[in-house]
Specification:
This is Membrane protein insertase YidC. The protein is α+β, with helices and mostly antiparallel strands and 617 residues long. The protein has helices at residues 3-24, 31-44, 62-69, 222-227, 325-329, 349-365, 371-385, 387-413, 418-432, 440-459, 496-511, 521-538, 543-567, 570-582, 589-616; strands spanning 55-56, 59-60, 82-86, 90-95, 100-110, 116-120, 126-132, 138-140, 147-153, 159-166, 173-180, 186-194, 206-216, 230-235, 240-244, 250-253, 257-263, 267-273, 281-287, 294-305, 311-322, 481-487, 491-494. A hairpin with a 6-residue loop joins strand 10 and strand 11. Residues 26-37 and 43-49 have low confidence and may be disordered.
Length: 617
């Protein structure tokens, strides 16, 4: 590997390591910040009203209830009843208390322990509107008892269930209607406020929908889950953004929003405004509990524009499902953008994933069931894609190896004049017909692929709980040995794919040792240090990713041997270089400008030396 190639790889390596550290960096909240988050969470979390204070002689006192609950006194008490809507992939259990989902199960998925995967399964998960009671207080509909709850089967195979929150006036009520289609992960949630313009304050122009969500631990690695626990949103102009629960305690928007999504590592719950409707704003508070079973909690207040019509309706669609690219893309509202396919300075690699990696991956998975084999074929495809650039790289390295003795002579001759050495070296390259940057092009071509894979494999739900060789889950790290202690900058387990990746990277560096600048310690040892630096980082990443890198290294070693053994003839290259030297040199515009700049720099240096000598005299 020539000097320029090593410099290129070193710079790319620094960028790549920086990108990895940026994505894996954790922000540990201080005690003061945690107290602030807890305080905000308590303020946002709806609190049920204690109805025991309104019981007289063992029976509800209607006068006391009317005094406290106003027109909604009839909904203050009741017996909890549940009803289920279910299709092939989704099972939602509804409760008449709050007229809301009390449990949501994804039927085709299991958690890391093999138990049913539940996106909602506690009293913490609530969907509630705030309605006025007497004494200027507000009630949360999640604490009140709705009527209804009978399942209706529609002609298109969908199932619907409606809940009604009655008032003292039969013509005034709040109604929730949920419709679950025959297939799919989305349920329609229609809010109807009938005649409530006379109940709500005259100044009220919005309805506040409180959505509290608690994300339980679904995967083996809690640290990784929390890094991927995020809130995403998109406004009506199509702008998408997000924040991570660990880094942001609260956030508020006053602009119109199309959807808000609470994303876990492989699943999400999203509230979508349907039929050209929009949320008038949102106020979100987040909390990361110290519990080992809860990944994160969000308290989301969505503002619903209220036009005070007698028959007011607001259509919402709730998505409970996997972060599957094709499924989310089918909504055609940019929901697939919650999947991290490339961000930051490497945001452009998401197009590599969208246009190359994902289509090829989906094509292969269409007729191959073993995902380890799919990764192998995907790796071979990518290496074939960049094969022409790889060949040119080896040819360039061979040319630089032929010129190395002459470069060493120039270096010894102009040891004290680096400027002149640079000019003479450029002349040598030009006369020999060698591009000194020829070895960097394949590295530049491979970098987007490397980063794209770094984003794709850990985010691919298709790999979740899929085994290959000793790896039990290709979306998580493979461990051949769990350590009873933590090794700093490494972890508490040993990933074999990571060790193999590191070993093959060192083999590549060893094979190219003769082409590096041996006089420069940085250039000499960087190819060996860089893989060791990555060892601790990749030890806890998805085994599919480390397997891909290991396999790519093995192919590189094999290609290097085959090309150098059968395709690159050093004698012919040497003869071609000597033949090129005999031809009259023609300067390109770029080379002419470069030489002109070097001459000007030399003239300035001479002038400065003359000025210094005159001062000494």
């Amino acid at each position: 590997m020539d000097r320029n190639s090593v410099i290129g790889f070193a710079l790319l390596g620094v960028l790549f390591v920086g990108y990895i550290f940026f994505n894996n960096k954790q922000q540990v909240a201080a005690k003061k910040e945690k107290a602030r988050q807890d305080s905000l969470a308590n303020l946002n979390k709806p609190k049920p009203v204690d109805t025991a204070a309104y019981v007289t002689g063992g029976a509800p006192d209607s006068s006391k209830l009317a005094s406290a609950y106003g027109t909604f006194a009839g909904a203050a008490n009741g017996a909890i009843q549940t009803t289920v809507l279910e299709n092939e992939v989704l099972k939602i259990t509804f409760s008449n208390q709050g007229g809301q989902p009390s449990q949501v199960q994804l039927k085709k998925f299991k958690d890391f322990e093999g138990k049913p995967l539940l996106l909602a399964n506690s009293s913490f998960n609530r969907i509630s509107l705030q309605v006025p009671a007497n004494n200027n207080t507000l009630l949360n509909t999640a604490d009140l008892f709705f009527t209804g709850g009978t399942v209706q089967k529609l002609t298109d195979g969908s199932q619907a269930i409606s809940y009604r929150l009655p008032t003292s006036n039969p013509e005034q009520y709040l109604e929730y209607v949920y419709t679950l289609k025959q297939d799919g992960y989305a349920v329609d949630f229609d809010i109807h406020a009938i005649g409530l313009e006379n109940v709500l304050p005259a100044s009220q122009k919005t309805l506040s929908l409180q959505w509290d969500s608690e994300n339980d631990k679904q995967e083996q690695d809690m640290q990784n889950e929390r890094q991927n626990n995020q809130v995403h949103y998109r406004d009506t102009d199509g702008k998408h953004d997000y924040f991570t629960l660990q880094r942001t305690g609260s956030q508020k928007w006053d602009n119109k929003l199309q959807w808000v999504s609470v994303k876990q590592q492989f699943f999400n719950t999203t509230f979508i405004a349907r039929k050209d409707a929009f949320f008038g704003g949102a106020d979100i508070t987040t909390k990361v509990p110290e519990s080992g079973n809860i990944v994160g909690q969000t308290f989301t207040k969505l503002e619903i524009p209220y036009n005070r019509a007698h028959d007011f309706s607001f259509p919402i669609e709730i998505y409970y499902g996997p972060n599957h690219y094709k499924t989310l893309k089918s909504f055609d509202i940019g929901l697939e953008s919650i999947i991290p396919l490339g961000s930051g300075i490497f945001a452009f690699v998401k197009y590599v994933n969208k246009w190359i990696i994902i289509p090829v991956f989906n094509f292969l998975s269409g007729f191959i069931g073993n995902y380890g084999l799919i990764i192998i074929l995907l790796t071979v495809f990518i290496r074939l894609l960049i094969a022409p650039f790889t060949y040119q790289s080896y040819v360039s390295q061979a040319k630089m190896k032929v010129l190395k003795p002459e470069i060493d002579e120039l270096k010894a001759k102009y040891a004290d004049d680096q400027q002149t050495f640079g000019m003479e070296q450029m002349k040598l390259f030009k006369s020999a017909g060698v591009n000194p940057l020829g070895g960097c092009l394949p590295a530049l071509m491979q970098l987007p692929i490397l980063v794209a894979m770094y984003s794709f494999f850990p985010s691919s739900i298709e790999l979740r709980q899929e085994s290959f060789l000793w790896a039990k889950d290709l979306s998580a790290y493979d461990s051949i040995l769990n350590l009873p202690f933590e090794i700093p900058f490494y972890g508490n387990h040993v990933s074999l794919f990571t060790l193999l990746m590191t070993a093959t990277s060192l083999m590549l560096a060893f094979n190219n040792r003769g082409m590096a600048d041996q006089s420069n310690p940085v250039m000499k040892y960087m190819p060996y240090v860089f893989p060791i630096m990555l060892l601790g980082i990749f030890n806890r990443l998805a085994s599919a990713l480390t397997f891909y890198y290991f396999l790519s290294n093995v192919i590189s070693i094999g290609l290097q041997w085959v090309i150098q053994k059968f395709f690159v003839n050093h004698d012919k290259i040497h003869a071609q270089i000597q033949e090129n030297k005999k031809k009259p040199a023609s300067k390109s515009k770029w080379q002419g400008k470069l030489e002109e700049m070097q001459k000007k720099q030399q003239e300035m240096q001479k002038r400065q030396q003359d000025i210094q000598q005159r001062k000494k005299q």
